[in-house]
Design brief:
Blueprint lengths: L3 E6 H16 L4 E5 L7 H9 L4 E4 L2 H10 L5 E3 L8 H7 L2 E4 L2 H14 L3 E8 L7 E2 L3 H9 L4 E7 L12 H18 L5 E3 L6 H5 L9 E4 L1 H5 L1 E2 L4 E2 L8 E14 L22 E7 L11 E3 L5 E5 L4 E4 L12 E6 L1 H9 L3 E6 L5
Parallel strand pairs: 1-19, 2-3, 2-10, 3-4, 4-5, 5-6, 6-7, 6-8, 8-9
Antiparallel strand pairs: 1-13, 11-12, 13-14, 13-18, 14-17, 15-18, 16-17
Helix pairs in contact: 1-2, 4-5, 6-7
Bound molecules: pyridoxal-5'-phosphate (PLP).
Pyridoxal-5'-phosphate (PLP) binds next to strand 10 and helix 9.
């Protein structure tokens, strides 16, 4: 028996992928479908492939190995800079990895030699977000070092934004990436085939046609899944925002006071709760808790339902203002944001149900 269900409309995933491909394709930009946001559930990956992604990308080797075992043979990029302890798997299961440490790239070179399997490197450049990447002034020297290593080939430059520092993609920082690529080509005589200009947050520049010429790849997860761009705090108007839905079952429905009765200690997570007295309120308890999903990542579709709180296994919802006639056994539905999907997709307590075409 499954008490909660994550429903996924595969046609909407395919549609969103095709839309992103179309918009990017007009400007010569290829699209990697990023699968880490939903634990690389193969049915969803297949819908992305059906929508026309140019390759797949994930941050986790576990996900990549799973996809290879399912038979996905698309070009595969590892999006998190590799662990020194894991370079053999990276060479074995992926075609490309993003990198920023020469020590790791040397180890990849050795692994590639041992496995007789060449590996491609996208060098990450930190243009200001302060997550991974080589600083601009060190790019040329690092590229030179990589060019001398057997078994690995520097095929591109990439950057990541909006993740740690909240830096937005711009004409300037993407322009710098393109310039650095040109500089490497001229000074070292290497061919830089890929300029990977970020993720969903770069789509707004693609829409307005101001991505610097030369940027020819984006790595898209959130936009395809959710139709949102949280870095720019917007819904993307030309994408569906309802491919995912979470359903949970009501296990208690009663009118109760809004203020607890008795001496107040700590709640299940060590906090001292505060309550405003709003009299008697209709409250639904759902069989869904912090063990199942990041509660901050879900929103009731009925706007008049309000999440009051959650413990490990119970979600408490105020239903006083809702017109819905709620009973024990009913389902209440939620939209999810990125952290909601991330958590729900990997919960073994939440069933997965697929709608639309089967693209496997
Ligand atoms: C997660 C990730 C992406 C995808 O980002 P979205 O905002 O979901 O499109 C792209 N690149 C890297 C390096 C990532 O880690």
């Amino acid at each position: 028996m499954v008490s909660s269900l994550l429903e996924i409309d595969l046609d909407k995933i395919k549609y969103n992928t095709a839309q992103v491909k179309k918009i990017c394709g007009r400007q010569g930009i290829k699209v990697l479908g990023v699968t880490k946001g939903f634990s690389a559930i193969p049915q969803i990956v297949a819908a992305m492939v059906a929508g026309g992604v140019d390759g797949l990308a994930d941050a986790r080797m576990e996900n990549i190995i799973k996809l290879r075992n399912y038979g996905f043979d698309q070009e595969m990029t590892l999006l998190r800079i590799p662990k020194l302890s894991n370079v053999a798997d990276v060479v074995h299961y992926t075609n490309v990895s993003v990198n920023s440490e020469i020590t790791v790239i040397k180890a990849l070179s050795q692994a590639a030699g041992k496995l007789h399997s060449p590996h491609q490197i996208v060098l990450m450049i930190d243009v200001g977000d302060l997550r991974e990447g080589v600083m601009a002034e060190n790019v040329l020297a690092t590229a030179k070092q990589i060019s001398r290593l057997p078994g690995v080939r520097l095929i591109g430059l990439g950057t990541n934004m909006g993740c740690f520092g909240g830096v937005l993609p711009s004409i300037n920082n993407l322009g710098l990436l393109v310039e650095l690529g040109t500089c490497i080509e001229k000074q070292l005589g290497l061919q830089i085939e890929i300029i990977s200009g970020g993720a969903t947050s770069t789509l707004s520049l693609v829409e307005t046609g101001i991505v610097p010429a030369g940027v020819n790849q984006l790595r898209i997860g959130e936009g395809i899944l959710l139709g949102t761009d949280s870095t720019n705090n917007r819904k993307i108007p030309w994408l569906c925002d309802d491919a995912f839905l979470l359903r949970a079952e009501v296990i208690e429905f009663k009118a109760k006071p809004s203020v607890p009765i008795g001496d107040i200690g700590r709640d299940a997570f060590g906090n001292i709760p505060q309550f405003a007295d709003e009299g008697l309120r209709k409250r639904a308890i759902l069989a869904l808790g912090k063990q199942d999903v990041n509660i901050e990542g879900i929103t009731p579709i009925d706007e008049n339902l309000k999440i009051l709180g959650a413990s490990s296994d119970h979600l408490i919802v105020d239903a006083t203002d809702s017109a819905a006639n709620i009973h024990v056994g009913d389902a209440i539905c939620f939209r999810l944001n990125y952290s909601g999907i991330l958590s729900a997709s990997q919960s073994r307590y939440i069933g997965k149900k697929f709608y639309g075409g089967n693209y496997g």
